[in-house]
Amino acid sequence: MRDPAKEVMEKAYAKWAPVYDVLCGPVFLNGRRAAAKAAHEVGGRILEIGVGTGLSFDDYDHTTQITGIDISEPMIARARERLASGRYPFVKELRVMDASALDYPDASFDCVVGQFVITLVDNPEQVLSECARVLRPGGQIILVNHLYSEKGIAAAVERLLAQKARKVGLRPEFPFQRLADWARSHGGAELIERRKVKPFGVYTLVRFRRAERERVAA
Ligand SMILES: C[S@@+](CC[C@H](N)C(=O)[O-])C[C@H]1O[C@@H](n2cnc3c(N)ncnc32)[C@H](O)[C@@H]1O
User: Fold this and answer.
1) How far is the CA of 53 from the centre of ligand 1 (A)?
2) Rounded CA gap, 158 and 165, in Å?
3) Which ranges of the sequence are coiled-coil (predicted)?
């Protein structure tokens, strides 16, 4: 099945924006917290791609500097409303932007976080390469997502739901292997962690480190 089209996502998240916090906030809570905790350990300048309504702001503090981007104008508008509360002075910038074409110079961030977004983008490999480009050497990409079950009944159900899920801006059938393959072929990033998020293990946290030097193909 093809990657989701950008326009489909924009349309879907325009509809999600007013109800997202109530319906999706609690569902993704433990995944978001795990990713933000891992990002916090890296610290410094953090870019969140697909920041959505800014639900993760509560998971950061003044020791970090957060930049958020999202392709959906209505989702970013919600994040700006949250920012206007004055509770998040460490959030530096929120912009409407496609994660596959980041408008930031090379090596501008210490960490790039993607919470429940990498499976939704048109061309995840391009997005990952953009994330790696804007990272300083030694910086990390941290992703959290539901990833494809690969075998068994869950895999069959996910494939069945896939087509309908796409229209509402979800994608249950995305294999971990695709992320691992990207890291192997990229030359400037290495996979450093893959773990299930406790307590239920529904979500997977994946970390990559930007290499200090590009690997040269043998
Ligand atoms: C499931 S929501 C997750 C939002 C937030 N990260 C959270 O965990 O609450 C997915 C978000 O990714 C955004 N998105 C989808 N494709 C994108 C792209 N190509 N570039 C940037 N954001 C994108 C959507 O607009 C949406 O806000």
Assistant:
1) 9
2) 9
3) none
Report all structural domains of the chain as residue ranges with CATH numbers, in order of start. 6-210 (3.40.50.150)
The DSSP 8-state label assigned to residue 216 in this structure reads P
Of the candidates 50, 32, 35, 46, the one whose C-alpha atom is nearest the C-alpha of residue 99 is 50
- Provide the phi-psi class of 50: left if phi over 0, else alpha when psi is between -120 and 50, else beta: left
The Cα 212–Cα 199 span in angstroms is 34
> For the segment 84-94, what is each residue's pLDDT rounded down to a tens digit?
999 999 999 99
Tokens of 168: 């509402």
Whether ligand 1 lies within 6 angstroms of the CB of 57 is answered as: no
Indicate if the pLDDT at residue 154 is higher than 70: no
Ligand 1 pocket: which of 7, 94, 117 to mutate (most atoms within 8 A of CB): 117
CB 76 within 8 A of CB 70: yes
Copy the structure tokens of residue 161. Answer: 């739901």
Closest listed residue to residue 57, CA positions, set 31, 72, 78, 36: 36
* 16 ligand 1 Cβ < 6 A: no
Q: Ligand 1 center to residue 215 CA distance, Å? A: 31
pLDDT band at residue 8, thresholds of 50, 70 and 90? confident
**What would the two tokens of residue 153 be?**
């009944």
Check pocket membership of 100 for ligand 1, CB cut-off 6 A. yes
